[in-house]
Amino acid sequence: MTPGTMPAETIERQAAALARYRLLDGPKEPDLQTVVELAAQLCEVPIAVLFVLDADRQQQIAAIGIEVDACRRDESMCSVALVNPEPTFIEDARLDERFAENPFVTGKFQRFRFYGSCRLCTPDGFVLGTLCVFDQVPRQLTEQQKQGLQRLGRLAVDVLELRRHGFLVADLLQEQQRTRIALEQTNATLRHFAAQVAHDLSSPLTGVLACAAELRSLPAVAGDADARWCTERVASSAQRMTQLIDDVLRQATTDAAGHRVDVDLAEVAREVIEDLAVPIKEAGADLTVGALPVVTGEVTQWRILLQNLIGNAVKYRHPQRPCQVSVGARTGDDCLRVCVADNGIGIPADQREVILEPFTRLDPTGAAGFGIGLSTCARITYAHGGRLEFGETPGGGTTVCVVLPVPS
């Protein structure tokens, strides 16, 4: 290699580093101007420049005492200095064979005699360029001046690091803004879809309610306790489904976060158990409900939450023991825990995080379902500022707790 040349791989890495700092085509950095002014004052010279170099050119990013902006890399004095890891100090460039024919020495561009420079090395080892001082007469620097110039070079790198991090933050904020806009568009689409589904389901449910009312009026149904019980379950479930659809429609057309009110969990649990009366009866489940509190939240979401947890407890019962399900609440450690415990088939400890992913099913019994119930429960719990906890019920089974912070 001739003096001042560098391996192609090194030049490519240097160019990549320059791109990260956006030095060749980015805005000027005012703080770097202060660095070159201090360098000229420290070394008692008229000219100081911060140069960066890529594969083809040298460009100044801050300067005092000179107007030069850019030149070819092979014309640069700094391309020679870059090869040397130590600072370069030349008393008279005419007497140094590396610089004697340089156009900045011969008079083609300038008639520099004294030249001093230190490399700008990034924390990860890339050399971006140099901090240089020049004079048109020969001179020597004191050791104190040489050390001071190196400190100013490190200060320049610190300024460039702040610049790079500033660009990174700006890029992240822009990406965050793009993500926010995309989420808003997605949420708007989902709200429209929910509103359309809610609207389309309203008419069939109206028909179900009308048929249930008609059935109740038939003598054969009125005189049969089982038929009457089933008809009443159909009517009450359809009525609550109508209310659920109305709530979904309201959320979809107003605020997707829902309307937070005082929610009587005892009343919600009672309604959920009524809606699940048929599967509870078929399972022969022994279901007990303890004292439940009033919480602040969204009624529809709590109904969905308890319906999923109680429904799962009944659905995934153990085939070799009578189904037992208990619903209760307790406070402690600044938390409120609303728990549904069963003696069913259980969830292995190493699967309790996986089961919260949408469309994940671990059930070996082949019970119907799409694997979205617990992921829905998790989202609702998180929306209320809480989390789901899974544990093993003493004697076998699963205990799922909705853990909420207790308001101070």
UniProtKB/TrEMBL annotation:
GO CC terms of this entry: plasma membrane
One Gene Ontology term of the molecular function aspect: protein kinase activator activity
Main localization, broad class: membrane
Keywords: ATP-binding, Kinase, Nucleotide-binding, Phosphoprotein, Transferase, Two-component regulatory system
Compartments where located: Cell membrane
Pfam families: GAF, HATPase_c, HisKA
Catalytic activity: ATP + protein L-histidine = ADP + protein N-phospho-L-histidine
Documented EC number(s): 2.7.13.3
Domain Histidine kinase: 196-408
Entries under Gene3D superfamilies matching the protein: 1.10.287.130, 3.30.450.40, Histidine kinase-like ATPase, C-terminal domain (3.30.565.10)
GO terms for biological process, alphabetical: osmosensory signaling via phosphorelay pathway
Record-linked PANTHER family: SENSOR HISTIDINE KINASE GLRK, TWO-COMPONENT HISTIDINE KINASE
Record's protein name: Sensor-like histidine kinase SenX3
Species per Swiss-Prot/TrEMBL record: Actinoplanes octamycinicus
